[in-house]
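Practice problem 4.
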């Protein structure tokens, strides 16, 4: 029977090692074998279980409810499916009270227990929509707290992933304004794949990358991200960059121009 180390499983499934450990320790969802030295080893059955868990999370089921659904498949389909995590309501209550400690605790646990893509679509985006409906005098305060803790936690998550990275280095360039949460999540998802990410925030000009010494020596790929339509001048610079560099230039977000690799 073939067994896989936790880092291999992370690469195969897209689930962070810290999340796999949390699913085992806190929720008892997976029971990998252990080597004599204590390292976790996962079977094909464990991998199938992980994919089943991912399927329920994608439907909006909170991680705490997944085990019961997996064990009672007949009733599973009739159970609640939501477009946001249960933790979202708790987080909104903490933000409404400007309770920074509680809000950070909830958000830190969510980042640890769910893939980044689920955190963004089923927690962060619902919170942003809810805050948009709050009356102006309080909205800016609550949003300020939310943005601050998101930036701090996402940078910490990227650094944690970087410490375990072993598949090369990426220069991640955000062409959004400074502090783009979307760019940070996109960078975190790249780091989640085992790539070491160097994150550049709020970049306005990329043409200098084409002539900068050492870029191709230090990085195996360049990632450009923007959640906005870029001026034609920037699009032209990106096209020139793709021609000038021998490493892949990968565009994501809403960057639109001919010849780019879109994700």
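Answer key:
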């Amino acid at each position: 029977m073939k067994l896989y180390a936790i880092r291999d499983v992370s690469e195969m499934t897209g689930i962070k090692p810290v999340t796999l450990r949390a699913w085992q320790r806190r929720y008892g969802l997976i029971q990998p074998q252990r080597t004599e030295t204590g390292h976790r080893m996962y079977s094909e059955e464990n991998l199938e279980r992980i994919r089943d868990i991912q399927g329920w999370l994608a439907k909006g089921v909170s991680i705490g409810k997944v085990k019961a659904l997996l064990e009672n498949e007949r009733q599973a389909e009739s159970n609640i499916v939501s477009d946001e995590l249960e933790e979202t309501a708790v987080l909104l209550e903490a933000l409404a009270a400007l309770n920074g400690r509680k809000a950070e605790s909830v958000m830190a646990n969510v980042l640890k227990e769910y893939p980044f893509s689920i955190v963004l679509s089923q927690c962060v985006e619902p919170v942003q929509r809810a805050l948009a409906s709050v009356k102006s005098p309080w909205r800016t305060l609550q949003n300020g707290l939310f943005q601050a803790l998101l930036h701090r936690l996402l940078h910490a998550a990227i650094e944690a992933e970087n410490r375990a990275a072993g598949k090369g280095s990426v220069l991640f360039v955000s062409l959004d304004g400074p502090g783009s949460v979307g760019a940070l999540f996109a960078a975190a998802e790249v780091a989640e794949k085992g790539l070491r990410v160097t994150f550049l925030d709020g970049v306005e000009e990329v043409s200098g990358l084409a002539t900068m010494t050492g870029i191709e020596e230090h990085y195996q790929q360049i990632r450009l991200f923007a959640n906005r339509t870029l001026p034609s001048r920037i699009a032209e610079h990106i096209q020139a960059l793709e021609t000038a560099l021998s490493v892949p230039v990968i565009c994501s977000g809403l960057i639109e121009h001919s010849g780019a690799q879109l994700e």
